[in-house]
Write a structure and sequence with these properties.
This protein is mainly β. Helices cover about 0% and strands about 45% of the residues. The chain has four domains: about 190 residues, no CATH class; about 80 residues, Immunoglobulin-like; about 80 residues, Immunoglobulin-like (Sandwich); about 80 residues, Immunoglobulin-like (Sandwich), CATH 2.60.40.3080.
């Protein structure tokens, strides 16, 4: 029986960074082989991915290899060369002078060595390159330039996975080389990449947030070498399309920073970059953290102000993490007799005008803080007694101003009193054409009433405040 010489091929990977003359070795990620063409003796119907040697050749059987280049941090433009290196050892019984080793494109990187067979293998594409191996070249390292192929694959694959297949010419039926599963200590398939690496720092590793509260947390990351400072981004989404204005590319000198001014119960995301004079690193990993949900403290109710016979202003202290407040009003300190319209009434401020009250009557109010986490306990209780009812002479020319008069477009009313005011305007025929209730919380505030749409003529104005009222004549004219 005729015997054929065999090649045992070994492959070495060196990752060279030209700038710093650094080298990293990356072993093959997946390797297997399969006979994919039936020459009368069948094809491979089972997975051969766990074999310690890989066999291929004669245009019938192909070896398949896959490399993971995700640790390459430079750009595609930085790559100067990529070589697939084969260390060949020639063993023969009959001298055969030469053979060729041929590499082919594999653009589908989803294959695995445990599933690949002669019936299930990725599409073999165009020839990438080939070399001639001669009998005189045994124990010699052969290098195949695949720079253009690798660069084109990296441009289209963000995962940086490279696959290709190889076989050899028809001169020799089979070639063998050690697979990644071999156990004798021989070198396994590798790749060599050279690049013009810049001196930018490596991206730092971001760590979990600490000291998380309702409105802040401490972001922490690795203290990288060759770094002058860091850039921090904080966002409300993992894609960083909604970055907080105060934390968009924020410069940080240390490897930690307290992020403040946050909302309770909100999830935030942060990432960081290391920077030196050569530029910035790529982004770190992304860390997410959620601020705490804490019910706000109860506010402190304070004394009422602007007390009249029918109204007063309830006041209370502001609470930092409160989003709003709730107020109760009652005619007894136990709040068993609530005043209609004043149960759980909401306010976004720390005061509220209480109106439509009875004169010379005692009322009680209390307040609660509200935020996303819930409602606080009740505040202390404040009691307030409305004043006695006064006569209509209280609203006089000295306490109420109506101007301009005559008027053509905007009537203005000012008073040194506070509380609830009802204003009515009567037409020359005595018909009510304007009636509205206004709340004045500050003395000498101005009420503006547009009257430009009214016909010219003499009108009557009535202003009511509790039991008090005053009537004025106004003249409307056309400018």
């Amino acid at each position: 029986m005729r015997r054929y010489p065999q090649y045992t091929l070994f492959f070495i990977l060196i990752w060279a960074t030209v700038f710093a003359v650094n080298a990293q070795t990356f072993p093959v990620q997946e390797d297997t082989y399969a006979k994919i063409i039936d020459d009368g003796f069948g094809i491979s119907t089972e997975s051969l991915g766990d074999r310690t040697t890989i066999r291929f050749g004669n245009g019938l059987a192909y070896a398949f290899v896959k490399f993971d280049l995700s640790d390459y941090e430079g750009s595609v433009e930085d790559i100067t060369s990529v070589h697939y290196n084969a260390y060949a050892v020639l063993k023969w019984d009959e001298l055969i002078n030469t053979s060729s080793m041929q590499l082919y494109e594999i653009t589908d990187d989803s294959w695995t060595e445990s599933e690949l067979t002669g019936e299930n293998y990725p599409t073999i594409g165009s020839l990438i390159s080939n070399i001639t191996i001669s009998s005189a070249d045994h124990l010699t390292l052969h290098s195949i330039d695949i720079t253009d192929y690798v660069k084109s694959q990296l441009e289209n694959d963000p995962n940086k996975i490279i696959s290709f297949a190889f076989t050899h010419g028809p001169e020799i039926p089979w070639v063998r080389y050690s697979s990644k599963d071999e156990i004798s200590g021989n070198p396994i398939p590798t790749l060599e990449l050279s690049s013009m690496a810049s001196n930018t720092p490596n991206p730092p590793t971001a760590f979990s947030a600490s000291n998380v509260s309702v409105s802040s947390f401490i972001a922490t990351w690795e203290n990288t070498n060759n770094t002058d400072f860091y850039k921090l981004d904080v966002a409300t989404d993992p894609n960083f399309t909604s970055i907080l204005s105060d934390y968009n590319d924020k410069t940080i000198a240390a490897n930690f920073h307290t992020v403040t001014g946050l909302s309770a119960g909100q999830t935030y995301y942060y990432r960081v970059r290391a920077v030196n004079s050569a530029g910035a690193s790529s982004n770190s990993n992304t860390i997410s953290t959620t601020t705490e949900l804490t019910i706000a403290e109860a506010p402190i109710a304070t004394q009422a102000s602007s007390i009249s016979s029918s109204s007063f202003i309830a006041n209370w202290s502001s609470v930092d993490i409160a989003e709003s407040y709730q107020l109760d009003l009652a005619t007894d300190p136990n709040f068993t007799n609530s005043v209609a319209g004043y149960q759980n009434i909401s306010s976004n401020n720390n005061s509220m005008i209480i109106s439509n009250l009875s004169p010379n009557s005692t009322y009680y109010y209390r307040v609660r803080s509200v935020n996303i986490a819930g409602i606080s306990q009740n505040s202390n209780v404040i009691s307030v007694t409305t004043s006695f009812s006064t006569s209509s002479t209280t609203l006089t020319k000295s306490t109420v101003s109506v101007f301009p008069n005559p008027v053509s477009d905007q009537l203005k009313i000012s008073t040194n009193k506070v509380g609830e005011f009802q204003i009515e305007i009567f037409s020359p025929s005595g018909k009510v054409i304007h009636k509205k209730t206004y709340i004045i919380s500050q003395a000498n505030a101005i009420i503006e009433i547009p009257i430009f749409a009214l016909p010219i003529g003499i009108y009557h104005l009535t202003i009511r405040h509790g039991d008090d009222f005053i009537t004025k004549k106004i003249v409307i004219f056309m400018e």
